[in-house]
Amino acid sequence: MKNAAAPIRVMMTKLGLDGHDRGVKIVARVLRDAGIDVIYAGLHRSPEEVVTAAIQEDVDVLGVSLLSGAHMPLFGRVLDLLKERNALHITVVGGGLMPDEDVAKLKEMGVADIMRQDSTPEQIVATIRRVVAERSDA
Amino acid sequence: MDLVPGVLRGETVPIARLLSCAEAADDASRPALARIFEHTGKAHVVGITGVPGSGKSTLTAVLAEEFANSGRKVGIIAVDPSSPFSGGSILGDRIRMADIAMNPNVFIRSMATRGAMGGLSRGCLDAVDILDAAGFDIILIETVGVGQDEIEIVQAAHTVIVASAPGLGDEIQAIKAGILEIADIHIVTKCDRSDSNRTILELKGMLKMGDLTKFVEGWEPKVIGTSSLRREGFEELAATIDRHRSYLETSGEIVKRRRKISETRMLKIAESLVRKRFYEERLGSISELCGQMERKKIAPDAAARQLLARINGE
Ligand SMILES: Nc1nc2c(ncn2[C@@H]2O[C@H](COP(=O)(O)OP(=O)(O)OP(=O)(O)O)[C@@H](O)[C@H]2O)c(=O)[nH]1
Ligand SMILES: [Mg+2]
Description:
Largest interface: A-B, 34 and 33 residues
Number of helices of chain A: 5
Structural class of chain B: alpha/beta
Bound molecules: guanosine-5'-triphosphate, magnesium ion
Number of domains of chain A: 1
Oligomer: heterodimer
Distance between the termini of chain A: 14 Å
Order of helices and strands of chain B: HHHEHEEEHEHEHHEHEHHHH
Shape of chain A: globular
CATH topology of the largest domain in chain B: Rossmann fold
Strand content of chain A: 15-25%
Largest sheet of chain A: 5 strands, parallel
CATH architecture of chain A: 3-Layer(aba) Sandwich
Helix content of chain A: 40-55%
Radius of gyration of chain A: 14 Å
Order of helices and strands of chain A: EHEHEHEHEH
CATH class of chain A: Alpha Beta
Strand content of chain B: 5-15%
Structural class of chain A: alpha/beta
């Protein structure tokens, strides 16, 4: 039911206990300047909190940033909860530093894409637009 | 998919999805919103405004918890400005509401102003309807208070709260045009700070000055100090909101406020429909009439009237 004139809604958050939010804030500004609505949900959220917020905000994309290697179970939990709560219309995108095999595994689990640390603003915006377009086509 | 039955049952996913339709303000969702409208009128709508950084989001969260703990369902609409350049926005109020985000009696939704003059988009008022129909007892709307916005919130809310932080520009911020006139309840936030007592006194002093006092029979604007940090003052605040609500009902003032809200909503939508028609005519009548004006064949006033007549004619 989303019409073309409505801005894309993206929620940005960070799972787990590590790190700061500078990167997340920079990405938020990049997306805002591309005409996207960004809901910034803050640091150190649990998968339950992240999924509850994403559902209430009805975002198109849930952007989850992670720095540490302990991300697999957390991502898995987010995807499980979205399914459990009937919210698979929300696309999950990951961000951060991780080895290639982890990227492949995450994609297999249902994460639409992973943005690397060195993504340019153009790449970030393009990725968001692409995953939203792919979902609408489906 | 028909979202309305799920909304009326108070289910989260349908509520959230219909809110997106309201925000998109597309014609496809009009029939659903019209059905929702039939089920509205039960919720008490509280507008919370104040200058940036005055502590609105933090206090909204603590207040919501106070109501939720007494068994009431609380809907929050947190409005932030859209970028005038890109149309996008960064909606950050939710960060301050993390403590209540998991409360099953609380639903939080962030919205952008979407260029709406005065801060409240048409979608925001439709969002209030959706939460009302979904069974939320109290709806808290947080809007950023700059210029017009404070006035706008009056035309959407039953109870208007203005939040001021101590010392934040001292007296000047309280004198800010119109602020004293619109508040049913004033909150001085951050009362864990030592300069808060002075701000409370100043505010009370100003409200006593005859020409500034909002004269409403039976309700004198209240000044309440709160500290979100220490969770102090919120019992009093919640009780005062409830008292204001019963005052509105027993005095009949609620009828006037409802009328004002109806009028504003209708006029705003009519305005946006006219603006849309103008936009559609930019290559038609508008461009033709501009040409005539440039050749001095028609004066601006007559051109404007002709444009309106042509749009109505269709
Ligand atoms: N000391 C103290 N600080 C507070 C209190 N409430 C909020 N703050 C701080 O004030 C700052 C702004 O709080 P917010 O709740 O985001 O204020 P706001 O009015 O919603 O801000 P905008 O939405 O940006 O206009 C934050 O740094 C808060 O931590 C309080 O009760 N005491
Ligand atoms: Mg805020």
